[in-house]
Amino acid sequence: MSQLILDIKNLTVHFRVYGGYLKVLNEVNLAVARGEKVGLVGETGCGKTTTMKSVMGILPQPPGKIVQGKIFFQGKNTLIMKKSEIEKMRQTGISMIFQDPTAALNPVFTVGQQLYDVVRHSQSTDESHSRLSTQEVSIRALQDVSLPDPKRILENYPLQLSGGMRQRVCIALAIARSKQLLIADEPGTSLDVTIQDQILRLLNRIAVEKQMAIILISHSLGVIREWTNRVYVMYAGSIVEESTTEELFSNPLHPYTRALMDCVPRLTGGGTSEGIPGRIPDYFNPPSGCRFHPRCPQAFLLCYEKKPPLYRTNDVHQVACYLYQEANQ
Amino acid sequence: MTLSKNNPKRTKSGKAWYKFSQNPLSVIGLAIVLFVIFSALLAPWVTPYPSHSGKYVNYNETNLSPSIHHLFGTDVFGRDVFTRTIYAFRSSLIMGIVVLIIVVPIGVTLGLLAGYFKETWIDILIMRITDIFLSVPPLILALAITSVLKPNLTNAMLAVSVMWWPWYTRLVYGMATSLRNEYFVQSAELLGASKFHILFKEILPNCLSTILTKMTLDMGWVILIGASLSFVGLGEQAPKAALGSMVADGAKYLPEYWWISVFPGLAIMLIVLGFNLLGDGISDLFSMEEA
Amino acid sequence: MNPVLEVKNLKKYFSTSKGVVRAVNDVSFSIAPGETLGLVGESGSGKSTVAYTVMGLYQPSGGHILFQGQDIAISHQKRKRVLKKELQIVFQDPGSSLNPRQTIEKILTLPLRLHTMDDNKNIKKIAEKVQNILSLVELPVEYMEKYPRSLGGGEKQMVAIARALATNPSLIVLDEPTSALDVSIQAKIIHKLIEIQQEKNLGYLFITHDLSLMRNIAHRVAIMYLGRIVEMAPAQQFFETPYHPYTRMLISSIPVVSSEEEKLKPGKIPSIGEIPSPVNLPPGCVFHPRCTNRLPICDKEEPKDFEIKTGHWVKCHLWSSNNN
User: Fold this and answer.
1) DSSP states along A1-38
2) What is the average per-residue pLDDT within C17-23?
3) CB under 8 Å to C252, separation ≥6 — which residues?
């Protein structure tokens, strides 16, 4: 098995609020190997962004609190790293691009100024880069994201560019220095479908060319299906299912995954489902045992009592559900 | 995400206090303001020499330095400075409250009208008048008015009101201008709601938190302006106690009998500080974040 | 059956410092009672402008809007009061379509107070009616005292829908009502909308960029590009046999979740370039710069509407010239 770039083990995060805690993350386990395209799918409030912020080291603590767990990046536990080590990790190890490219770019600096910042203030692991000037590295980054006329773009301010171009600039900022892992949080969601398609295609190409692993976070199952090779399904702060993409879509196991797939409107018609009964849980007082049990049509006593572990049903598929206890290999 | 409101530990007022008390300075501000208000209300009962607040003279006890008997010392007429300071809180608070009661309804209404009817004659008329009032240096305006009229507390309050209302108009104008484009306002318009409803039931409630914060901060500033006016003799007249005039009276005797000016001066500082800190807390309280 | 809404040659132009933006440039369609017309398009297509002009938030620059036979092509302030009850809109962003400083009860009382209470402004009766509408959208009665901020995005949107239903309208315009919501919440809302439509025989003008969603809620679909409708057809035909190159490009770009859907999609047509600025409209057919099936005529002459099959209209030289 290829080396793991990222290995999150039992991550549990709480947020301090009036009267108690929001128990947002509940023993999250997630791993990414070199060159993989991993999808993280889940609805609003399931904890995807909190997980990634913890990985990047940008979780506000307080009110956040990492109660337990370890996050290994290239074998080292980031939660016990010194500040300088974390900064190095962000410069040469992991980058993140966000949903809204407009908010991610500083409107009062040109694209060039923002790129130079990134290029200059990081120690490059590429020997080839040390020979090139900052400008040359920046232009190359813009070319890598297929932006025409990079020299002119360097002079532009973000608001002079279209949404799609801004997102490309964000990607360029993320890959200007080579990294092992790129986290893409709902990329292109705020853009038109045809432009989103271009952006996802770009991310795919970069992953292959630069041998970067990608974590693609999305609430759109269609995007996950088309652009990832392995998927984690997240609900209410924990991973409920994990599988290769192909297997997940042909054989979803967890009741939540199945209900979610049912909710997606099909291009072939067939009407709409009624949604999933109930609401996402109250993190202040989350349900005991499996957090999905109040909404699960197949819940039984054990589900109320203890959180199910991940059971392996075949060599590419795991599901956190007592229904599959027997099938465990 | 929604939080369980049924949890007995989480009451509405408890939540409010939690938000407010996140910043300990706000709590200090609240404490100061409450102290000022209660000591002003209960002045006859909490001060050692209530009769010193008005006409009182005792030439045996003039200019005594601070001691156990006279915490802030005595002034040229032998009056206890501590007692007079507490009594002076009264005129300060009255000025703050009365000015705001006059100024806020007028300023806010004008701001709502001008902001909602932006780029019509209503907007132009109101905002140009506002601009004119704002361009006159505030203290000069107040001085001009009070020197024309008889100098007393009422006229001082009038003068400060005249120069204060434009700030509320400006403030609300900005907010109304952006709020009128919100979907919920357009929704009300499309339903055919009256202009009165839209201005006062849709837009105004969304301005209240900012207005209330400003009102709290303004209490301090109005009191300061009031003190400036009474410092030059244009406010509450002798022998009634007023912070500004007390500072003025004692100014001649600096630095020897420093306590006559310094303690009232510190009191002014304390009041302004208290309202400022409280204002910060109020704005935290109204922030839309879930606690 | 007479259509509830008929839009004929609607135009809406905006003058900006950069020039005239032809946001809506000769758009025509009609909606029958109980029917959903879907309007789909990307940014700059003009779909939201159509919605707002129909509602009267914009004054049209030209054309006719016939509501139950009467021309209402004027701004909403000048329209008759009865229209304010018959024509309703649900906005895109649930966060800002509800006044954050009002309780749900207050928000829902407004339309009731304005339109259904003629004689008795009885408070108790209004409260009862509020409870009725809340149950219509399956929200618990306890929500009456809550503020929007304690509701989830989907629930807020349900309140917005309840508000639209409160006056018993004939037509509801829905501008991307579920775009900001998760798919499970979207399913719930759409399901409810369809149920209510069938119950009350409502017409919907449904706007979205989500083609898969459109397939399941619209009876007929019209696709807009830079202010024009380039193709319009009954839903099934629209997706099974799309003719316009833009329609095909759009359908081929959407990510789907099953292999059956993959088979339905036209072969992958890469989308090239970006949508041009609506100030500088390309000459001839507005789509020609991005079209992979360009003909010589496409940059010179604007194509006209051509009925390629019954009820299926395309605005494209490829198809109208075939028939010549």
Assistant:
1) -PPEEEEEEEEEEEEEETTEEEEEEEEEEEEEETT-EE
2) 87
3) C265, C266, C267, C268, C269
Run of H or E including A222: helix A221-227
- B7–A285 C-beta distance less than 8 A: yes
Burial of C276 per CB tally in 10 Å (0-12, 13-18, 19+): middle
Look at phi and psi of residue C181 and say left if phi exceeds 0, alpha if psi is from -120 to 50, else beta: beta
Q: Residue C55: what residue type?
A: M
Q: B16 — contact with chain A (CB < 8 Å)?
A: no
CB contact under 8 A, B190 and C163: no
User: Which one of C43, C194, C260 has the shortest CB-CB distance to A268?
Assistant: C260
Phi, psi of C250, rounded to the nearest 5 degrees: -65, -45
pLDDT at residue B78, rounded to an integer: 87
pLDDT band at C159 (very low <50, low <70, confident <90, very high): very high
**What pLDDT band is residue B3 in, cutting at 50, 70 and 90?**
very low
pLDDT band, residue C186 (cuts 50/70/90): very high
- Hey, are the CB atoms on C101 and B208 less than 8 Å from each other? yes
Q: Do C56 and B290 touch (CB under 8 A)?
A: no
The single-letter code of the amino acid at B219 is M
Please judge whether A282 and B2 are an interchain contact, meaning their C-beta atoms are less than 8 angstroms apart: yes
Query: In chain A, which residue's Cα lies nearest the Cα of C182?
Result: A43
Q: Which pLDDT score, from 0 to 100, does residue A90 have?
A: 84
Residue B206 has which token pair? Answer: 């969304």
Interface of A with B (CB under 8 A): 17-20, 22, 45, 279-280, 282-285
Q: Which residues of A touch C38 (CB under 8 A)?
A: none
Which 8-state DSSP code applies to residue C21?
A: E
Measured between CB atoms, does C258 come within 8 Å of chain A? yes
In angstroms, the CA C266 to CA C289 distance is 20
B/C interface, count of CB pairs below 8 Å? 60
**Collapsing DSSP states into helix, strand and coil, what is residue C43?**
coil
B190/C57 touch (CB, cutoff 8 Å), yes or no? yes
Q: How confident is the model over C117-146, as pLDDT tens digits? A: 665 567 788 888 899 999 989 899 999 999
A4-17: strand order across its sheet: A20-33, A4-17, A64-73, A76-77
Which of C58, C81, C84, C96 best probes binding to B when mutated, by most B CB atoms within 10 angstroms? C96
CA C120 to chain centre: 36
Confidence band (pLDDT; 50, 70, 90) for A329?
low
Average pLDDT, chain C: 89
Contacts of C152 in chain B (CB under 8 A): 1-2
Tokens of A102: 């407009």
Query: How far away is chain C from the Cα of B288, in angstroms, using its nearest Cα?
Result: 8
3-state secondary structure B56-95: CCCCCCCCCCCCCCCCCCECCCCCEHHHHHHHHHHHHHHH
Q: Say if residue C198 is exposed, middle or buried (CB neighbours under 10 Å; 0-12, 13-18, 19+).
A: exposed
Q: Is A310 left (phi over 0), alpha (psi -120 to 50) or beta?
A: beta
- State how far Cα C149 lies from the chain centre: 26
- Using DSSP's 3-state secondary structure scheme, residue B221 falls into helix
Distance CA B131, CA B125 (A): 10
Residue B37 scores a pLDDT above 90: yes
Q: Where are the alpha helices (DSSP H) in chain B?
A: 12-21, 24-41, 43-46, 81-116, 121-135, 138-148, 153-179, 183-191, 195-197, 204-231, 243-251, 259-285
Instruction: Kindly list the distances between the CA atom of residue C259 and the CA atoms of A195, B255, C127, C255, C266, in Å, as whole numbers in the listed order.
Output: 23, 92, 50, 11, 13
pTM over 0.80: yes
Q: What are phi and psi of C231, to 5 degrees?
A: -155, 140
- Whether the pLDDT of residue B212 is over 60: the answer is yes
Comparing CB atoms, the residue among B2, B184, B192 nearest residue C97 is B184
Interface predicted TM-score (ipTM) over 0.90:
no
Q: What is the mean pLDDT of residues A129-146?
A: 81
